[in-house]
Amino acid sequence: MTITHDFSGATVVITGAAGGIGAASASAFAAAGASVWVLDVDSGRGEAVAADIAAAGGRARFQRCDVTDDAEVERAIGAVLAGDGRIDVAYCNAGVGWTKPVSTTEPDEWRKVLDIDLTGAFLTSRRAFLAMRDARSGVILFTGSPHGYRTMAETSAYAAAKAGVGGLMRALALEAAPYGIRVNSLLPGAIDTPALRAEAELSGDPEDAIRRWGAVRPLGRIGRAEEVADLALFLASPAASFITGAELLVDGGAMAAQPAGLATVAPK
Ligand SMILES: NC(=O)c1ccc[n+]([C@@H]2O[C@H](COP(=O)([O-])OP(=O)(O)OC[C@H]3O[C@@H](n4cnc5c(N)ncnc54)[C@H](O)[C@@H]3O)[C@@H](O)[C@H]2O)c1
Questions:
Q1: N or C: which end of the chain has fewer CB within 10 A?
Q2: CB of 166 closer than 8 Å to CB of 244
Q3: What is the mean pLDDT of residues 93-118?
Q4: Residue 216 is assigned to a structural domain of this protein
Q5: Best mutation site among 65, 91, 193, 224 for ligand 1, i.e. most ligand atoms within 8 A of its Cβ?
Q6: Is 72 within 8 Å of 116 (Cβ atoms)?
Q7: Could you tell me the CA-to-CA distances from 101 to 104, 110, 152, 236 in Å, in that order?
Q8: How far is the CA of 82 from the centre of ligand 1 (A)?
Q9: Is 18 a domain residue?
Q10: Per the domain annotation, does 43 fall within a domain?
Q11: In terms of residue numbers, what domain contains 119?
Q12: CA 267 to ligand 1 centroid distance, Å
């Protein structure tokens, strides 16, 4: 289901928008009338996302941007400002997963995940905030993760990075509030995206992994990228005008549940 929001006249920048949650969000914002900037390191898929949006009647441009490189982030944000003269929504979504425990994670592997998932979020949100601060309005969104709270031993660097995104989001929300800029995080899981499919492949039986990840959720399934996009549009819209510094789950109820095996009382 897509709730109707009107982003006509708004400029929306989304990192990691060449696939998964970012691409679905780019399509949804464009369908709601926004001028969308698709930022990603993957030029081929990023161009394709922008072309698909244009073919559907929307406005989208691809801009190559490696979120770990501040010069590229500055160039990308500069291109948006040169093109549209404004940034109304910046969705700092780019990220990579990680499936190794602390003991076997090499320092360079750790730095790479933290560089993309946490420092990348810092660099893009910082440049977007500087642009929005002059305009004294805007919305900044992050894609965090429930792994910032509850994780697994194998998800070491990812869990640390996503917990860090929560801290970054809260600090920026406080700094941005006097300028009328709202800052929030989405905590999705598990969402059917190329990244999730790649992780399922590691299990040796990807279809079984997808089924299991769905079955443990109270709603009994994994989520769709469009369902995360719906939350992004809500948080960016005036309907969320009093929401800032918040983390919103879109996880099929998983975080509400105690781990299996903790039930002590038989239902009456
Ligand atoms: N899929 C899930 O279940 C899930 C759950 C929780 C959080 N997330 C988070 O959601 C976000 C999107 O994930 P997804 O599942 O859509 O993954 P995805 O792999 O489908 O998309 C991620 C995108 O980020 C891009 N990217 C990677 N490194 C980059 C860099 N240095 N600079 C710019 N772009 C870069 C990739 O090219 C890709 O297009 C990530 O931050 C991820 O951690 C996903």
A1: C
A2: no
A3: 97
A4: yes
A5: 193
A6: no
A7: 6, 10, 8, 35
A8: 26
A9: yes
A10: yes
A11: 11-253
A12: 40
